[in-house]
Design brief:
The chain is α+β, with helices and mostly antiparallel strands. The chain has a 4-stranded antiparallel beta sheet. The relative contact order is 0.21.
């Protein structure tokens, strides 16, 4: 079971349909990336990184990504989650996009 922070609960809204990407890396680290359209039709993104035991390592929520599509946001979110999980230094293309 994953231990969630306030970022996840700010994201959580069961009434909105979302798409998700869950992945377990070779060291057991878990990533959870979710995208959705808000009630105002804005693309929103949630990124979570957790230990193999489900303990929180990192969570962030982007409430509005401008004109970015859900598909593009999901790809960027997965890239960012993998980079955060592995300690890879990458440019934050998500923040640059909006």
């Amino acid at each position: 079971m994953r231990h969630r922070s306030g970022e996840f609960w700010a994201w959580a809204d069961r009434l909105l349909d979302s798409r998700a990407h869950d992945e377990m890396l070779s060291d057991g680290t878990q990533i959870d990336v979710q995208v959705r359209l808000s009630r105002k039709a804005e693309t929103q993104l949630f990124i979570g990184v957790y230990t193999k035991e489900g303990r929180l390592q990192f969570e962030e929520f982007y409430p509005a990504l401008g004109s970015m599509t859900m598909e593009d946001a999901l790809v960027l979110g997965v890239d960012r989650a993998r980079a955060l999980a592995t300690g890879t230094n990458v440019t934050d293309r998500i923040l640059q996009a909006h």
